[in-house]
Amino acid sequence: MRIQATKPLFAWDCLEDSPTLKTIKQLLDIIPDEKLLVSLEESRGKGRNDYSLRTLWGVLVLSIALRHPTIEACLAELRRNESLRKLIDIESEDKVPRKWNLSRFLDRLGEETHLTFLHQIFDAMIQQLGEAVPDLGRDTAGDATALNARRKKAARAEVEEEQGLPQATGGRKEYTDDDGKVNKVVEWFGFKLHLLVDVKHEVSLSYKITDTKAGDGETLPAILGDAQANLPTGRIKTLAYDKAADTNDVHQLLSKANITPVIQNRSLWKEDHERMLPGHDGNSNIVYDEAGTVYCYDRKSQPMVRHKMSYIGHEPQRHTIKYRCPAMHEGWECPMAKICNAGKSYGLTVRVPQEIDVRRFPSLPRATKKFERLYKGRTAVERVNARLKIFWGADDGNLTGSRRFFALLGVIMVVHASFATLLAMTPRRDGTLGQTKLSPIAQALHGKVKERVPPRRRPKSKERQSRLRFSA
């Protein structure tokens, strides 16, 4: 890959449509998959061992990394590309696996404990990036997307249900306008993929696959916990989500973790769209709306005029939100100034305790420019979803059964993390005729990868090669 120095650290637009052999070799080397291969080897049984584990695993990784529409297309390329075969230890054309070998291997990969080890590969690569990139995960955003899949017959599905894997079901999502009328309906059959991504770098920090009935707010604590485990302590500062996560449980969870919620408010009030702030009686002119925006009324003007109070900041020690007189703060005259401010140099000050309603009064009020700017970061999730679903084929809908679906999606997430690591490690080209240079982050990642390259990447003896065989 050729990346200019002016490109961002994770230059996703520089990914090659046809990666070179050098890029593919680097991609295979940075995946810490030794534990997974050992786990598969121990559970292989006494069946046939025509193909090594590294070969079958490598075919899955290559089929995604090379953007083949099907695994059969990747197998066809391996039969005609000798150099590509050597990267995954295939000696000759007749040693290329068949499609049913990969189908059975994918089904085996979706079993426990292999599925857990597969998820741990993704976690290990994100932890490595989190240590090397100082701002990875500072501003995050989350969302859920629909993925199409097929369901196995009832008798075979029971085996997967006993394992704890959800089955593909029908999903439906309605979109409403400002008046609450449904103007768009999306239906699908399959699963939901929940992601938490970095807004700036567009790198997925954690993921979870559920059935279509699982709510976003119910799943958010799980993916947030995984992201916190993958990043240094206290790294996550903000989290943006849509109205689906606007629940008391989510806001309390973020408040305890000192994470600023950037979540739109759900409209639930049918009457009384303005209410008196607790602690203020009918003689006060301070009110708030459903979104938690605080207003003051100019009662001397006819008709009365409502002004949005100036947000001063969050006081974490007091657990309050501080507001001041908008006229004094913004420098304009108000007929109520003498009554409200009563000679105070800073004007009227209102502190709103968050304990009144942590969902309605978050540390960053919704009616601020900073909230609007951070909320726009949710578009990063859409771009990550597009790469997973369109670029790497997570939504082709051709897989049958939960085990195969969970396994393939796990491999796709590993490829996503691998390309992110590769982009951060790639030397940058400084000018049209300049030399390529490694950034400090790239140097740190090269050192970590060099330490973690498993012994199996080195030339293996015949005894080692015969031991890494898989029954297919």
List its traits.
6-stranded mixed sheet; 4-stranded antiparallel sheet; disordered C terminus; Nucleotidyltransferase, domain 5; alpha+beta; single chain; 472 residues; 3 domains; 19% strand
How would you sum up this structure in a few lines?
The longest helix has 24 residues, at 402-425.
Tally of individual domains: 3
Distance between the termini: 35 Å
Largest sheet: 6 strands, mixed
Q: What percent of the residues sit in helical stretches (DSSP H or I)?
A: 25-40%
Beta-strand content estimate? 15-25%
Number of helices, where a helix is a run of at least 4 consecutive DSSP H or I residues = 17
Strand and helix layout:
Blueprint: E1 3-4, H1 21-29, H2 34-42, E2 51-52, H3 53-65, H4 71-80, H5 82-87, H6 99-109, H7 114-132, E3 139-148, H8 154-163, E4 169-176, E5 182-198, E6 204-210, H9 216-230, E7 238-241, H10 248-256, E8 260-263, E9 274-276, E10 286-289, E11 294-298, E12 305-308, E13 310-315, E14 320-324, H11 326-330, H12 337-341, E15 349-353, H13 369-375, H14 379-391, H15 402-425, E16 428-429, E17 436-437, H16 440-452, H17 462-467, E18 469-470
Parallel strand pairs: 1-16, 3-7, 7-8
Antiparallel strand pairs: 2-18, 3-5, 4-5, 5-6, 9-10, 10-11, 11-12, 13-14, 14-15, 16-17
Structure description:
- Helix content is 39%, strand content 19%.
- The chain is α+β, with helices and mostly antiparallel strands and 472 residues long.
- It folds into 3 domains: 192 residues, no CATH class; 140 residues, Nucleotidyltransferase, domain 5 (2-Layer Sandwich), CATH 3.30.420; 91 residues, no CATH class.
- Strands 3, 4, 5, 6, 7 and 8 form a 6-stranded mixed beta sheet that branches. The protein has a 4-stranded antiparallel beta sheet with strand order 9-10-11-12, with no helix packed on it.
- Helix 1 packs across helix 15 and helix 7 packs parallel to helix 15.
- The longest helix is centred in the C-terminal third of the chain and has 24 residues.
